[in-house]
Amino acid sequence: MSESTPSTESRSLQPSTGARIEIRGVRHSFGDVLVLDEFDLTVEPGEFLTLLGPSGSGKTTLLRIVGGLTIPDEGSVIVGGVDMTLLPARERGMGFVFQNYALFPHMTVQDNVAFPLQIRGISSDQIDRDVERALELVNLQGLGSRLPRELSGGQQQRVSLARALVFNPTVVLMDEPLGSLDKRLRQYLQNSIRLLQKEIGFTAVYVTHDQEEAFAMSDRIVVMHGGTVRQLGVPETVYRSPTEHFVADFVGDINEIEGVLRESGHGLIIEIAEGNTLVVPPYVSRSLGEGDRVLCGIRPEMVVIQEEPMGSPRLQATVELVSFHGNSYRILSRLRDGRRFIVESSSSLAAPAEGSTVWLHWDEEQTIVLIPPDGQP
Amino acid sequence: MSRGGWRRRTRRRPYRDSLVGLALLLPCLVVVLLFFAYPLIGVFVRSVSDPAPGISNYVEIFSSRAFRNILRLTVEVSLLTTVGCLVLGFPVAWYITTLEKRRAQLFLVLSTAPLWVAILARLYAWTVILGRRGLINDSLAAMGLVQEPLDLLFNTRAILIGMIHVMLPFMILVLYSSMSGVDESLVESADSLGARPRQTFVRIYLPLISPGLIAGSLLVLIMSMGFFILPAVLGGGGDITIPIYVQTQIRLFKWGIASAMSMILLIVTLALFALLTKVFDPKSVVVGGSRR
Q1: Under an 8 A CB cutoff, do B291 and A153 touch?
Q2: A44 and A171 together in one domain
């Protein structure tokens, strides 16, 4: 930054500008199975983008195509304005973090992290400084002489991260890097990775099937299913305004209630059980009319439990099971029509008694209205 | 809870477990003691007692010039066989690891198919191929490439060809098992970190498969050192290796000399074994991928 910066300062791990990644019309199959179909996606420079989807959705294949470990059948990958579709991984200069860490078992931590620098012919003094700094960044200083098998899973993954960052890539690709770690460690490393990414500024593409992890880390999320983009957006939008049933269901628990569109004095409304009506969000009314069926989704934490019938919309329910989760209660209830309805309420509020009759109320604006696919109610 | 229960159960059982272990080992132990350790001691005792007590047999062997040639030929042929098997077996084993599972099985079966044929049949097949009126000489003569038949059979080269042919399947099997244990993501990881294929091969792949390289080499080397029938058939009596020498001594009822020679073969083999494992310490290398 300033002129007083000593010239010996490491060149590595300096704030850099990430590269833009453009994925255009990528199609790929394994044998007869089409895993990616006409896939288009742009990742902005310095963005943290997560590919979220169930196994078999094509997310890992897409990541490998960006990283050069898989060559797509069709389409192109353009990074920083350069078409890299056919470029081998070693010439792309991207950091790649594998789920199983992929540390070289016969090398010490130090040698693992130094490997990409040695390959690049950097002087050994410089390498020592860069490796030390990289290990400091991931909080592993002093462990350089250990072998990977002498480290815990979390430590191994941090070595793997240091190794992927040490040569200053403008793009870092991560394939479920925290998949095999326990929950607390995962949350800790999620924060570390995100802070590092913000500090250094590389473009990150992250693959996970864990929606909480995707929400916690990402600038934007791509929900994938069957080799296509189902929804692309910031975490809040994906969670609150999913565009289809698959996304709504995949990114979190949701209570589903059937509704029918009715013409009222002021336009369309949605009629649901027990005489409740809901306003129709603008994106629905454009395509549907009187008598069409919709699916109304209500997230468990949006619901307020009341002992008296108050507010609208509200549904009467019987409490079947109350479970305590530390910061919240999960209340399993049954509506009068027999459907299950899950409510999550803060544990600072009193929990209703099991077997009691309650009324469930939520803000109608927060209802997620989904158009069911043809042939389904 | 469950952990405590588990502990208690294992604590109660070590005595019974060790009894079971001993029972499982016993048949094998009996066979080894009876048919390996006892005869080996017998051979040693004979080497220092027949015809007269003392080390006269060893003195006689070491003072003969022929012995040095025999020893050199034995070691030379064995080492060259090992190198030949490594050079020929490595690409084959590697190629099989790149195949999908069912094809890999097929290729493994094919490359070990020679093992199903009796060794004598295979060796006499080589005499048919290499002989003065054999396949190669007849073909070369028919093409007018040679006037006189080449001496392909009954020399060191013939022993080497046969030796490599017989040992190659073992080398391929051992190399394949170690190569197929290498985690593909390690190679991909080196690739993504910028390593050229040659760098990945030298710095990642070779160290990872080195236990297999060492095990395969030792297996071939030790088997070659003691091979009798092959040099006997393809060497044609001119090339005498230690096992052949031992056999001729036994035919002359010189049991003492034969025993001493056997002991020397054993010691040389063990020394080579120790040397190789010392130079390439297999314990410094882990097979396969990372934890998990």
Answers
A1: yes
A2: yes
